[in-house]
Amino acid sequence: MRVLGVDPGLTRCGIGVVEGGRGRQVRLVAVGVVRSPSTEPTAERLLHLQTELDTWLDRFQPDAIAVEQVFADVNVASVMHTMQASAIPLLAAARRGLPVELHTPTSVKAAVTGSGRADKAQVTTMVTRILRMESAPKPADAADALAIAICHLWQGTAAGRLQDAARAEQARLRSVPGPSTTRAAVAR
């Protein structure tokens, strides 16, 4: 499975693509940051982000998109810009029919480091180790995008196994004669 992770931001938007599956090492496919100058109008900055994201989607053909859920902060203007930027990958996923999932910062940190309270340095260190990179991805937005993609890959793989097990159990239960079938057979 190939996942494109997005750490949304209007000035810097981290994008990372990882690949992996059950019993396979997670592999780095690509990582980068889309930048837009704060001097440009917001609409132009969002268009630039959309164009760059579409280029990544065309080039890397992910199976899913994972986006970090916006965390409310005291800086309302910053939160608004981040929320606007987070809409771009959601729309891109809908246009392409790709599954998209929002992950909280705490769940991403917990998945990658084992602690939902990890700091950015710990996340970057673990991403570097997990992906066996020679050097840490920079800036932090790039490392965060990879962490989001890894979190989604791991949680999606586990969720998929649980769904498969539930479907198998349901099929097994449908094939086992129920109480009414057993009683009918005994009554004959």
From TrEMBL:
<keyword id="KW-0233">DNA recombination</keyword>
<dbReference type="GO" id="GO:0048476">
    <property type="term" value="C:Holliday junction resolvase complex"/>
</dbReference>
<dbReference type="GO" id="GO:0008821">
    <property type="term" value="F:crossover junction DNA endonuclease activity"/>
</dbReference>
<keyword id="KW-0460">Magnesium</keyword>
<protein>
    <recommendedName>
        <fullName>Crossover junction endodeoxyribonuclease RuvC</fullName>
        <ecNumber>3.1.21.10</ecNumber>
    </recommendedName>
</protein>
<keyword id="KW-0255">Endonuclease</keyword>
<dbReference type="GO" id="GO:0006281">
    <property type="term" value="P:DNA repair"/>
</dbReference>
<keyword id="KW-0479">Metal-binding</keyword>
<keyword id="KW-0540">Nuclease</keyword>
<keyword id="KW-0378">Hydrolase</keyword>
<comment type="function">
    <text>The RuvA-RuvB-RuvC complex processes Holliday junction (HJ) DNA during genetic recombination and DNA repair. Endonuclease that resolves HJ intermediates. Cleaves cruciform DNA by making single-stranded nicks across the HJ at symmetrical positions within the homologous arms, yielding a 5'-phosphate and a 3'-hydroxyl group; requires a central core of homology in the junction. The consensus cleavage sequence is 5'-(A/T)TT(C/G)-3'. Cleavage occurs on the 3'-side of the TT dinucleotide at the point of strand exchange.</text>
</comment>
<dbReference type="GO" id="GO:0000287">
    <property type="term" value="F:magnesium ion binding"/>
</dbReference>
<feature type="binding site">
    <location>
        <position position="7"/>
    </location>
    <ligand>
        <name>Mg(2+) 1</name>
    </ligand>
</feature>
<dbReference type="Pfam" id="PF02075">
    <property type="entry name" value="RuvC"/>
</dbReference>
<comment type="similarity">
    <text>Belongs to the RuvC family.</text>
</comment>
<keyword id="KW-0234">DNA repair</keyword>
<feature type="active site">
    <location>
        <position position="141"/>
    </location>
</feature>
<comment type="subunit">
    <text>Homodimer which binds Holliday junction (HJ) DNA. The HJ becomes 2-fold symmetrical on binding to RuvC with unstacked arms; it has a different conformation from HJ DNA in complex with RuvA. In the full resolvosome a probable DNA-RuvA(4)-RuvB(12)-RuvC(2) complex forms which resolves the HJ.</text>
</comment>
<keyword id="KW-0963">Cytoplasm</keyword>
<feature type="active site">
    <location>
        <position position="68"/>
    </location>
</feature>
<dbReference type="GO" id="GO:0005737">
    <property type="term" value="C:cytoplasm"/>
</dbReference>
<dbReference type="GO" id="GO:0003677">
    <property type="term" value="F:DNA binding"/>
</dbReference>
<feature type="binding site">
    <location>
        <position position="68"/>
    </location>
    <ligand>
        <name>Mg(2+) 2</name>
    </ligand>
</feature>
<dbReference type="InterPro" id="IPR002176">
    <property type="entry name" value="X-over_junc_endoDNase_RuvC"/>
</dbReference>
<keyword id="KW-0227">DNA damage</keyword>
<dbReference type="InterPro" id="IPR012337">
    <property type="entry name" value="RNaseH-like_sf"/>
</dbReference>
<dbReference type="InterPro" id="IPR036397">
    <property type="entry name" value="RNaseH_sf"/>
</dbReference>
<keyword id="KW-0238">DNA-binding</keyword>
<dbReference type="GO" id="GO:0006310">
    <property type="term" value="P:DNA recombination"/>
</dbReference>
<feature type="binding site">
    <location>
        <position position="141"/>
    </location>
    <ligand>
        <name>Mg(2+) 1</name>
    </ligand>
</feature>
<feature type="active site">
    <location>
        <position position="7"/>
    </location>
</feature>
<dbReference type="InterPro" id="IPR020563">
    <property type="entry name" value="X-over_junc_endoDNase_Mg_BS"/>
</dbReference>
